Amino acid sequence: MVDQAPAVSIHGPKVRIAFSGEDVLLRLCLIALALFLLIGLLLPIYTLLSKGLQDANGNFVGLLNFVTYFSEPRASVVFWNSLRISVLSTVLTLAIAGLYAFALTHSRMPGRVFFRAVALVPLLTPSLLPGIALIYLFGNQGFFRGALFGHSLYGPVGIVIGEVFFTFPIALLIVQTSLLTIDRRLYEAATALRAGRLRTFFTVTLPAMRFGLGAASFATFTKVFTDFGVPVVVGGSYPVLATDLYQKVIGGFDFQMGAVVGILLFIPAAVAFVAGHLLQRGRSASVDGRAVVYVPAKSQARDLACLLFCSVVALAILSILVMAVLGSLFKLWPYNLSLSFSSYNFAEYEPSGWGAYRNSLRLSGMVALFGTALVFFGAYLLERVPGASWLRQAIGFCCMIPLALPGMVLGLSYIFFFNSPSNPFGGIYGTIAILVLSTVVHLYTVPHLTALTALKQLDPGLEAVGSSLKVSRFATFGRVVVPVCLPTILRIASYLFMNSMTTISALVFLYSANTKVATVSVVLLNDNAMLGPAAAMSVLIVATSATVVGLQWLLMHGLLRRTQAWRGRES
Amino acid sequence: MTSFKPSARLRLLCAALLVSASVSSGTATAEAEELTVYSAMAKEHFAELIAAFQAREPEIKVNQLLDSNGPIIARLLAEQENPRADIILGASVPGLVMLEEKGMLAPYAPAGLDQIKDRFYDRRSEMPHWVGTDAWASAVCYNKTEGASHGIEEPKRWQDLIKPGYKGMITMPNPNSSATGLLAIAGWMKILGEEEAWNYMDALHENIAQYVHSGSKPCRMAAAGEAVVGIAYPAPGVKAINDGAPLSVVIPEEGVGSEVEGVAIVAGARNPDAAKKLADFAASQEGNEIHNKYYALVARRGVATAVPNYPEGEEAALVDMDFYWVAANRDRILAEWQKRYGTKDEPK
């Protein structure tokens, strides 16, 4: 059902008969996009999958590698460890995020804007940061080490706390959206039928949240299952799949087993991806045109409880951030807590020094620039250009794959694919280009969907009008589509920039002598127990992403006033 | 007519965008001489060497990659078909021997090879594939403040570490990623015999809090009080003492395994001339004086100044190690280690 919506717009503007040079060029662009996805995504994955079925000399051995892997008693322990912490973190995150979202949308507590903003802070941080802050808070010398009741931070305890922090905003955003779309009339009906508060919650609120909770739990689960940053810092000797993969490949140079672990990492994400698709299919629109936005009634007791709960959560989030900042300023933790900036003198601790941070800026800038252009133009080709429908559907499907593909798996597959001497693109291995390519592919899906949504809002007759005025499609694209969609383009660019700053998973396999980035530097600093400088570099990353988001917000406001005036006139 | 211009521009843009992803910045092959150095040295030592080398050869641009021994060897192996590194400046000799046996090292006799002690270069071949810079031995770092607060005494012998009082207080590097970890194990095997060494490690395993990724981490964790005892090597502990941490570095009485760290030129290096210059420098008097700031034992004859706060009696405690034995048995030892201790911390 849902699938038919784009189909209409595909066939809609099919008015041309002549096959002009412009059409040929558009087709070529489409083919180029397909080639990009083939080289950047499909072929590397294929290489990885086939590596998993080969022995070290490249002979086909079927599932033998998997049998070997699981015959080690350690392997199943690692797998179950991963599963255990993922389930536990997901349940905790959902409970906290669910209540928090409820408080934000279904109460009148004061400070909701503030609480919403604080909840999104973890989006700005690399997943290494919560682990580092947790060492200062609850490590063997931590300020609150007593709070763990004698448990060691290093291991499942630390991983779960870190993952809850890291995945909280993702779960919150999804659940919040589902809560916002509840029709107020349902509550009015419940009140009219004299349903009690509890009953209303179980018969109206919870069912409405069902899809949101489902989607949020899939998203959280995959995120935790494939995350590398938290366990590498506070995992101690508690092995999970992501750290095991790192150790197999980086530590033990066992690429066959690395491929096996990579495939295992991919499985739950793939299942979640398919399940998510099925769930979405079964869901018909619950909000129709007559739906009324829910406005919570006054209730002091509820508001007080919500305020209390949100304050505790917000305090926890902020204390992790503040702890990282403080940690980066201590002179010699834990014996000399006077403050200094010496940890920011990175050259003292890491040969790349500030160069790693500069590389991160360069990478993020390039990803934002090329990625935005590619994603937006690609989405335009898919959404607004007629013809070649099978090719466009295939490309559309490929654009969704990165969402399910863990970054570490992508990074590993890039080593296999691009470092093979027979690959004509092998030249980009070891340069910043491979980091840019992997990051653009890794982050592709979300901006792609954002661009599609924005493009769908445009009148399908736009190009037809243009061509009737004998204006080329490219001119229409440059003069109408891009300016109209400028806020979306800006949002995509800032999303790409921010996420390139904080991502670690794919890059940890792909960086080279002169392309080390900030997050990799944090991993290496942490590997050498240089906690202060690791905290300092993480703080720098957060500060940069916060600045970019701030800039985007300012620009957006300025732009909206200048370019989006037509929207105001319309309504 | 007017519509032609933007359209042409956009066409170009579109073509450029799709191509640029695969082309950009692959143009690093400029005229300036470059040198890509991989290293598993201690950071301070490496930085000082490179700075001194650059002062001498200012026209060479050095790209540097520093990591633990395991990752550096892993990267070299991964890039075997298409080497990126020109020279390995400081990797443990068993790792270099393994690379040599795969034909990945180019033989080179640096200037002044006659001044290098016998134990410090590859004598299996006519021309050496690797030349050592310094030797280091296992050691134990002990945090005096934390030890006192937990009521644990400073360990004097390896056997002290398996006493129940140390339970959960010790960290040691994972031998899979760290040459330091492998060295400690090889040393125990030399001292105790292989079977007894495994028994010792079984007992030690009960006291280990964490096996960590890098060889310099245990001493730094001990220095920060995250652990009380770290099994590693002296250099990072000595540095921490000089920085003011309440640490002592102990050479256990039974003796310690030692390892040589060496320099080797990669076969198929893109910049062999610059690589040779660096290899010469590492073997020179000036280079060895730098090694000597961090290690008591260096390759060149007659360079032996005492290192401040370096533990005494290291040279006397050294157990003679056979790198070729370690290189040949590495995989077997690691597999056995992984089987026995790879699942530390499974929730009880």
Automatic annotation (TrEMBL), chain A:
UniProt source species: Pseudaminobacter soli
Family: Belongs to the binding-protein-dependent transport system permease family.
Domain (ABC transmembrane type-1) ranges: 79-276, 357-552
InterPro entries: AminoethylPonate_ABC_perm-1 (IPR017664), MetI-like (IPR000515), MetI-like_sf (IPR035906)
Keywords: Membrane, Transmembrane, Transmembrane helix, Transport
Membrane topology: Multi-pass membrane protein
Primary subcellular site in the record, as a coarse category: membrane
Biological process according to GO: transmembrane transport
Membrane-crossing residue ranges in chain numbering: 24-46, 83-102, 114-139, 159-180, 201-221, 255-279, 304-330, 363-382, 394-416, 428-446, 496-514, 534-555
GO CC list: plasma membrane
Places the protein is found: Cell membrane
PANTHER family reported for this sequence: POLYGALACTURONAN_RHAMNOGALACTURONAN TRANSPORT SYSTEM PERMEASE PROTEIN YTEP, PROTEIN LPLB
Protein name: 2-aminoethylphosphonate ABC transporter permease subunit
UniProtKB/TrEMBL annotation, chain B:
Signal peptide: 1-30
UniProt cross-references to Gene3D superfamilies, sorted A to Z: Periplasmic binding protein-like II
Any GO BP: thiamine transport
Keywords, ordered alphabetically: Signal
GO cellular component, one term: outer membrane-bounded periplasmic space
Pfam hit, one: SBP_bac_6
GO molecular function: thiamine binding; thiamine pyrophosphate binding
Name of the protein: 2-aminoethylphosphonate ABC transporter substrate-binding protein
Source organism per UniProt: Pseudaminobacter soli
Organism taxonomic ancestry: Bacteria, Pseudomonadati, Pseudomonadota, Alphaproteobacteria, Hyphomicrobiales
